[in-house]
Amino acid sequence: MPKAHFIGICGAGMNAVAKLLKDKGWSISGSDKGAYPPISTYLDNHYISYHTDYKKENIPSNVDLVVIGKHAKLTKEINEEVREAYKQNLTIQSFPEVLEELTKDTNNLVITGSHGKSTSTALTAWCLEKSNKKPSFLIGAIGTTPNTNALIGASNIFVLEGDEYPASNENNKSKFLYYNPTNILITSLAHDHINIFPTKESYIEPFKKLVNLTKNKIIICNKDEDAKQFIKALNKEVITYSLDQKSDWQATNIKLGEVTTFTLMHKNKAIIELETSLLGKHNIENIVGVSALLLELNLLTKEELQEGVKTFKPLARRLDQKNTNSLIPIFEGFGSSYSKAKSAIEAILLHFKDKELITIFEPHTFSWRNQSYIKNYQDVFEGSKEVLIYKPPTHGAETHDQLNFGEIIKESKKSNSNIYGFENIKEGENILKSLINKNSIILILTSGPMDGFIEKTIQIAENKFPSLNY
């Protein structure tokens, strides 16, 4: 049995590729200092062993492959386990390089974009799995539909969440350029990862390369000007989608609610009525994009699509409800960028118009901590009655022009005076206890663990406003 060792196994994509190799019959081990739920639970459930620190002794003897993640601390200079892998002259790859080998003979559906890609990838995989098409898939987040984020299936179809981020600390080539794309779905081209792509032009460049690699269908959301200009510059046939009737695929008759319904349209012709429990118009747009992909490729009937969409549940950290034992609903969104945070807030405001929104935010990603991103704090929390902001982490601060906490608070207060910064969990608890009331709804926005404050928030809501059945 071949052995693979993953350094940084809890990173986005790393745990999923570890699972894929396990499905292929490999023995898997790993290490990560950032092991926390839901990823640590996922690894435990799949019987993948891992160390919670980085030491050279972690690398197994006779290992066939070492896969190293992209985290800023996974370099030869500062990480002894990474340094040891190079010292032993072991076979070392990034996880996208592993995927290049796994996808060389499959029909690959690569789904990417600055936001919406995880939900769209999971929905695509679920619709295919639900209709017994037996796909392989890799999803960058944990969910219940499908009940794993990675699987080697029995068919030739491989659904992959693609990412424009560099493959590793040693290799600046974008991850998705390794995935042998047969068909692609691009959900958004909003400028992101400004620590890596300082200009809009540099951000768009890898997407151009992805399009040029694609062998078959190219499907792009064309709702914003950046996407329209991108499509205009391509010398390729493109299928478009959005909530706008000028796109090839659209949605009409949208009725928002606990269950949202709408009519899927293709070139102004009604295709089928769809219903979903996902929140927000951005998720309707995601569903339209996935519908376009699956129906254009004739991978599903419209009735199979309908059933898949109806039964799909939100991914962890993608507007999933975190509690059931309190009268105060608590949702968590993936707040890694401006567009994601903004969409999450807008979704909560749309569906819970009679509630008072408390947003709890952690500027965890490099983008949110970068001086050139500061203007996005001016309106991102629009619609929130109160906002709690946790101190920014310091990992990787030396790689960019880091904002300090005071600057973040000052900029955020330009549009909302009810901004409260907190530097430790106890301080955050006291602030939240003073603000929460029976008409509150809470939205947590982060891409990190928030040092346990998510769990504390649930506890506070349950203690102050328990549900009638609790």
From TrEMBL:
Domain Mur ligase N-terminal catalytic: from-to ranges: 4-104
One Gene Ontology term of the molecular function aspect: ATP binding
The Mur ligase central domain, residue ranges: 111-293
TM region positions: none
Superkingdom in the source lineage: Bacteria
Protein name: UDP-N-acetylmuramate:L-alanyl-gamma-D-glutamyl-meso-diaminopimelate ligase
Originating organism: Candidatus Liptonbacteria bacterium CG11_big_fil_rev_8_21_14_0_20_35_14
